[in-house]
């Protein structure tokens, strides 16, 4: 998709929040006590993010994602396709946080 805004699907397959293109590296943990694993956020919205992973995760896996300037955010995988996965945040981010993450990504050379 070439648009800088994509929509996150709700439980019925409909998108519930606009996603914004982003490209930045971060880390996540798939379980308490597990080591951190690298990932790349491809796009993000108030409700979730699309991730490029270096390992496969199954849907319904709970993760703790590190977001620059926000800290750790609890989420769960809602879909996975090879090394890409979509996660839904357990508590939605505010619009200002998403805007800042996307803007910071653009400044670091990410696509937007």
TrEMBL record:
Sample GO molecular function, one term: cyclic-di-GMP binding
Domain PilZ, first and last residues per copy: 14-102
Region span, Disordered: 1-21
Chain segments annotated as coiled-coil in the UniProt record: none
InterPro entries: PilZ_domain (IPR009875)
Any single Pfam family the record assigns to this protein: PilZ
Protein name according to UniProt: PilZ domain-containing protein
Provenance organism: Rhizorhabdus dicambivorans
């Amino acid at each position: 998709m070439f648009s800088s805004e994509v929509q996150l699907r709700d439980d019925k397959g409909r998108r519930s929040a606009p996603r914004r293109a982003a490209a930045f590296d971060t880390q996540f943990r798939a379980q308490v006590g597990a080591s951190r694993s690298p990932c790349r956020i491809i796009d993000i919205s108030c409700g979730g993010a699309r991730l490029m992973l270096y390992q496969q995760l199954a849907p319904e896996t709970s993760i703790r994602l590190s977001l620059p300037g926000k800290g750790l955010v609890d989420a769960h995988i809602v879909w996975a396709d090879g090394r890409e996965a979509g996660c839904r945040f357990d508590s939605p981010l505010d619009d200002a946080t998403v805007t800042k993450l996307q803007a910071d990504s653009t400044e670091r050379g990410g696509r937007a």
